[in-house]
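Morning!

This is the sequence you dropped in the shared folder:
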Amino acid sequence: MTEKDEKASHQGSGHRARLRQRLSDTGGDGLLDHELIEYLLALAIPRRDTKALAKLLLHEFGGIGGLMAADWQAIARVPGMGETSVAAIKVVQATALRMLRNAVAERPVLGSWQALLDYLRADMAHLGVERVRVLHLNARNMLIRDENMGDGSIDQAAIYTREVIKRAMELGSASLILVHNHPSGDPSPSKQDIEITRQIIDAGKRLGIGVHDHIIIGASGHSSLRAQGLL
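The structure's back. Tokens below.
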């Protein structure tokens, strides 16, 4: 190692020590977004200055939410990212989602609505394609299954009444919550969103399966069809 390399390594270790101390003293709020990612990457790439790479990742994916939601291959295509560094990002995402999902699964969903919204926004708000999922609840409104019904294009994913009701019958669901995201960021429901929701409600009524709500997730927030009086 040259004298120049040794000096850069010493400066890098000193910078990371300062980040670590701020994290210890103030928690995550003590670090800027790029500093959180920088320190995370430093754990995966210990001998490299990761500040520039962290800033590049946040720029490429539009922030921490977009970075965490990006798929493995997209992150790996960023120059400087290897399997270990991508894995570091994805394991943080998986851990956060597991914590949020457990908070939903442990209590009646209708009594922990904010926990549900937090989980759905963390998982879906920054997806680049539209995803449809159905939450199946039992008679006590406990979550029995959270199923991805499929991903679509950047602005459309198909949801079929017959498939939703058939699956509810297989699982013995007492009620459902429909969820999908709008990659545009605007969670306002479309006419098609309202129409398909009413079709599923009508089909479920015949079999004693209720539909509590249809939630639309976007980067700018969420919409509830029930709260808007559209059900």
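Headline: The longest strand covers residues 143-151.

More detail when I'm at my desk.
O.
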